[in-house]
Amino acid sequence: MKVKQVFSAYNFQARNSLCNRYCSACGEKCVKKEAGGRERDSCPSCGFVHYENPSPAVSVLLVKDEKVLLGKRAHGSFKEGLWCLPCGFIEFDEDFLTAARREVQEETGLISEIESIISVMSNYLTPNLHTLVVVLVAHVIGGELCPGDDLDEVQWFSFSGVLPQMAFEADENIIARYWNTRIKGIPVDEDF
Ligand SMILES: [Zn+2]
């Protein structure tokens, strides 16, 4: 199976990244200025440069008895009604393993143990949302299955069966790749 780690949900090359921003430090209207090798929104008053970077996130393939746990995205959330792996953004003061366990618990009610890293993916989702996602394999060690946070439903799906309508191509890809290749990934830091 072909390895794929970059996913575009829209034509990001045609995106105009320079929009009408106001300085987050002083409130002045930003202007376009060269900084660090490309044009960026910069503040003419205090000099603050608005660097744009993808948001770091985690996605967790929770596996049990040849099944994977998926959540149905809640009404009002991005991609509502579609299904995805438990996932979320990493807090500034949080390591990615802690973030993964926290997201699993918040979204599914389950306590998980992370086994390995199976991929890292770039997702160009919308003009305002680009993510870099560390994909982890985990298993359940406790808790009770219950949808929380941004999900309306959580359910185990057989790897060999039909998946529901998925929110992200990256999730479909990694689920298929995991099942087709039984990829083990690399072990994670046991101290976290
Ligand atoms: Zn400023």
TrEMBL record:
Keywords from the UniProt entry: Hydrolase, Magnesium, Metal-binding
InterPro entries: NAD-cap_RNA_hydrolase_NudC (IPR050241), NUDIX_hydrolase-like_dom_sf (IPR015797), NUDIX_hydrolase_CS (IPR020084), NUDIX_hydrolase_dom (IPR000086), Nudix_N (IPR029401)
Entries under Pfam families matching the protein: NUDIX (PF00293), Zn_ribbon_Nudix (PF14803)
Organism: Pelosinus fermentans B4
Entry-linked Gene3D superfamilies: 2.20.70.10, Nucleoside Triphosphate Pyrophosphohydrolase
Obligatory cofactor(s): Mg(2+)
Domain Nudix hydrolase per the UniProt entry, residue ranges: 53-183
Name of the protein this chain belongs to: NUDIX hydrolase
One Gene Ontology term from the biological process aspect of the record: NADP+ catabolic process
Molecular function in Gene Ontology: metal ion binding; NADH pyrophosphatase activity
TM segment ranges: none
SUPFAM superfamilies: Nudix
GO cellular component: cytosol
